[in-house]
Amino acid sequence: MKKTIIRSAAALTTALLTLSGAAAVPAPADTSIVVHADKPGAVINKNVYGQFTEHLGHGIYEGIYVGKDSPIPNTNGFRKDVVAALKSLHVPLVRWPGGCFADQYHWREGVGPQSQRVVRINNNWGGVPENNAFGTHEFFELIDMIGADAYVNANVGTGTVQEMADWMEYMTGDQDTTLVKMRKINGRDKPWKIAMLAMGNELWGCGGNMRPDYYADLYKQYASFVHAKPGERPLLIASGDSDKDTVWISTLLKEVKPGMMDAISMHYYTLPTGDWQHKGAAIGFPESEWISTFANTLQLDGFIKTKVALLNAADPKNKVGLYVDEWGTWYDPAPNSNPGFLVQQNSLRDALVASTNFNIFHKYADRVRMTAIAQTVNVLQAMILTDGAKMIKTPTYYAYQMYIPFQDATMLPVDLKTANYTLGKVSVPQVNVSAAKTKAGGIVVGLTNLDPNQPASVSIAIAGAKPGAVGGTVLTASAMDAQNTFDAPDAVHPVPFSGATVADGKLSVTLPPKSVVVLDVK
């Protein structure tokens, strides 16, 4: 038998589409979708595509910031390759300095000459020294470089109200006060703008192991001393529950007036096994952990639905958002790595987890107005991995890239009927989807086929609009754990999609197995 070697992602995609029947007459659809362009919903806030970077492992040091004297090409200490990649991703917002690290972070230790900054042990992540070389000025320089907004997490666990109020004045003050003079001496004349300010992080756990009633009182105290000019106050975020829990959100909605609280956070991590002691491997996993990963990540839909119902009952005027400001996959740490650095490889599976979560977030666009994946570089479900001077973009990076048209687009409700993908006793819907009307007036449809073995034949009708032409991109590969490596940095990346046609006012689409597809419908 003559052996055929597929040498590129584009050729691989073509081969997969051909095998699935996309090049032939489409088979009867096993998935049907109606996109309701006639019933537009809420705007999908661009901040749903936010990022999270914490003082954790090599997330900042070596990942984003290498210092001015590094042989790695940099601008004022910031890696040129990473900055360019993040800028191309249209990152709308970055959360910093944590995470658990936020509640041990004292901002004064991270300003002034770097050689004179305080060195402490990072007790949350790896027990290694933190030299505070990356502080307030460096953070705002980073977001200016990539064109993002600032989400700052204040220290409630080991900090004080006065420390938070002073930090706010240092960052945003524009009068001739001692703290503003200090900022100017340290190199910044004009005040910075803060889009969002959170009061602590996971106060039920690493932030202080508090009771929700106690935190509600603390939150109100902290929020009372956030001083800003009219129209310039950042959105104020209270720390809420994780996973299915609702006691924190219920307490906050009862104890804090909506005008004092703009959002409540929630956290949710996807573990293949659901067991924090043995989470599962990032690569080399069996199909049983492929399907369990998606069964677990799909639970987020129900968790959000429950919390949104509580918000709707307590806040019918929709003043308080639900911000999923930590989410993503969490696996066992990479072999031979510091377990406190949360190093893991990123594969095609992660890209499908990302697109599946995007589709969930869009469904609740009226309340879910901000999310932040954990984390941007070298930590957990990262966009980017670095090794010395080398850098690669992960499959998750490309999922974010493909979904850029959804930023600030108007959500369009969808009706979905799809077959199930089943393995043993575990079953999940084969296809998930979301749709939106872009700012340019077109319709964009995001589709994920979770079945790693079978294509999905999809019929899409658009109520209220007649599709003309359709194009798009696809992200797929031959292996469930296909990944980009420093030796093969482009093994997994999006290519043009040819598996969609328009006939009789409907779209016929064949999704390759284990794929993300984003359609651009004219």
Q: How would you describe this structure to a colleague?
A:
It is a single chain. The chain has 522 residues and is of the alpha/beta class. The protein has two domains: 143 residues, Sandwich (Immunoglobulin-like), CATH 2.60.40; 362 residues, TIM Barrel. It is 24% helix and 25% strand. The chain is built from eleven helices and 27 strands. The chain has an eight-stranded parallel barrel with strand order 2-5-8-9-10-11-12-13, surrounded by five helices. Strands 16-20-21-27-23-24 form a six-stranded antiparallel beta sheet, with helices on both faces. It has a five-stranded mixed beta sheet with strand order 17-1-22-26-25, with no helix packed on it. Strand 6 and strand 7 form a beta hairpin. Helix 7 runs parallel beside helix 9. The radius of gyration is 23 Å and the shape is globular. The two termini are 44 Å apart. The N terminus is likely disordered.
Short description:
The chain has 522 residues and is α/β, with parallel strands linked by helices.
Task: Write a concise keyword list for the protein shown above.
27 strands, alpha/beta, 6-stranded antiparallel β-sheet, TIM Barrel, Immunoglobulin-like, 522 residues, 11 helices
